Amino acid sequence: MSEERILIIAVKNEGEHEERFLSSLDELVSLSKTAGGTVKSVITQNRSRIHPATYIGEGKIKEIKEEIDALEIDLVISNDELSPGQLRNLGNRFEVRIIDRSQLILDIFAQRARTKEGKLQVELAQLEYLLPRLQGQGIAMSRLGAGIGTRGPGETKLETDRRHIKNKIHDIKQKLKLVVRTREQYRKRRKVNEVFQIAVVGYTNAGKSTLFNRLTASNTLEENKLFATLDPLTRKLQLDSGFQALITDTVGFLQELPTSLIASFRSTLEEVSAANLLLHVVDGSHEDQVQQQNTVLKLLEDLDAQQIPVLTIYNKKDLLKETVIPMNHPYLIISANDEDDVKRVLLKIEELLKELWESYAVELDPDKGKLLSKLERETIITDKKFDEARNKYVIQGYVRKEHPINYLIK
Fold it and tell me: Which of this chain's residues are annotated to bind GTP (predicted)?
């Protein structure tokens, strides 16, 4: 299928920072490319406020319509979320399909979902997003069946009535409840077993999956595309001291993620709030990295995860044009493709945990092999020797304050 020809429209409001506006446009162009389209033109308008009926002014509508015809545009994408009325009015004027940023993101998620849970979550978000906009589809509905913004499990059902969609939403929510329950049980089990959990978070395309793969020697999808990872993946991670943890690769964050999507992915994102340590991966070479870091920190706040210790990792140092001024501490500047840098990440995690934990010293009889191996897996041992004269293992290390093992070594 040939790539769809896209025209982007955007309104810059009074008081909106030029940089932020331009960065959101660049992001929309990248998202369009990720979805499989080609952006042929971008038309913007400065307005004191968004037009309630048509999003943009009358004069601009004519200019856009001429551009659509001249460039043989297949799809118009709006930088802002459009109301059902705006969608309907613009669709009637442009006579081509029109979607907004949220719909585009949902479409990419539909392409990327691999697991049953991921697919259900995307379908739920799509249906909830489209339900109030059914009437606004107009021309788009008559041409439905292919193209950006129409993908995902929900597309063929959108022409049916609201009741059918409402029933479908109810069914998916019931199915998701079961999946969420299973995920919660896993989480509880990990907590009961006192497994230390690390979550890799960050803006989309910052290099989270690349770092995750290097740290765990696994092979999740690595692509220079937005939202390459959608379904969280958990692997075992072992530090040099022998300490073991579970590490989870999570979905990338983005400015203005659709609310319905955040709600649908709640259980996936809860992997983040259940973590004991966050690795916040930042694309250090990106010109908007400050904005991107702020977006991630804001989303962490929304997830009630702002109190979890964070190690900020400024990635892609091989692409840096200027020195990174770290916004967050503690931090590391690395390239996830550099083996030595990946080792530095492991050492830094260990160093950070020692600062957060309490030191301990214990002597164990030789028959306490089970406890010894538990200490090796669940604490950071800095010194271990066998005192032959006293026939005891002498061990020093660091342990989490709330770890039950404390009762055995005090």
Answer: 202-209, 227-231, 249-252, 315-318
CATH class for the domain made up of 195-354: alpha beta
Greatest mean pLDDT among 65-79, 125-139, 199-213, 232-246 lies in 65-79
R_g over Cα of the chain: 25
Q: Could you report the per-residue pLDDT of 320-352, keeping only the tens digit for each? A: 877 778 888 999 999 999 999 999 999 999 999
Residue 249 marked as a ligand binder: yes
Is 231 labeled as ligand-binding?
A: yes
207 is in an annotated binding site: yes
318 annotated among ligand-binding-site residues: yes
- Establish whether 37 is an annotated binding residue: no
Residue 136 is labelled as binding a ligand? no
Any binding-site annotation on 206?
Answer: yes
The mean pLDDT value for 254-268 works out to: 66
Residue 317 assigned to a binding site? yes
Ligand-binding annotation for 227, yes or no, is yes
Task: Determine if residue 59 is labeled as part of a ligand binding site.
Answer: no
The CB density around residue 192, as the number of other CB atoms within 10 Å, is: 9
Instruction: Establish whether 71 is an annotated binding residue.
Output: no
Q: Which two tokens stand for residue 278?
A: 């966050």
Give the model's confidence band at 263: pLDDT under 50 very low, under 70 low, under 90 confident, else very high.
Answer: low
Domain boundaries, the chain: 4-109, 113-140+155-192, 195-354, 357-409
- pLDDT of amino acid 230: 46
Could you report the per-residue pLDDT of 12-24, keeping only the tens digit for each? 988 888 888 888 8
219 is in an annotated binding site: no
pTM of the model: 0.77
Average pLDDT on 182-211 reads: 81
User: Is 100 annotated to bind ligand?
Assistant: no
| Token digits of residue 5 | 């020809």
Q: Is 229 annotated as a binding residue?
A: yes
Superfamily of domain 4-109: GTPase HflX, N-terminal domain (3.40.50.11060)
Measure CA of the first residue to CA of the last residue in the chain; give whole Å.
67
Same fold, 4-109 and 195-354: yes
User: Could you give the dihedral angle defined by the CA atoms of residues 140, 142, 145 and 151, in that order, rounded to the nearest 10 degrees?
Assistant: 30
228 is in an annotated binding site: yes
Average pLDDT of the segment spanning 217-226 = 56
Closest among 28, 26, 33 to 5, alpha carbons compared: 33
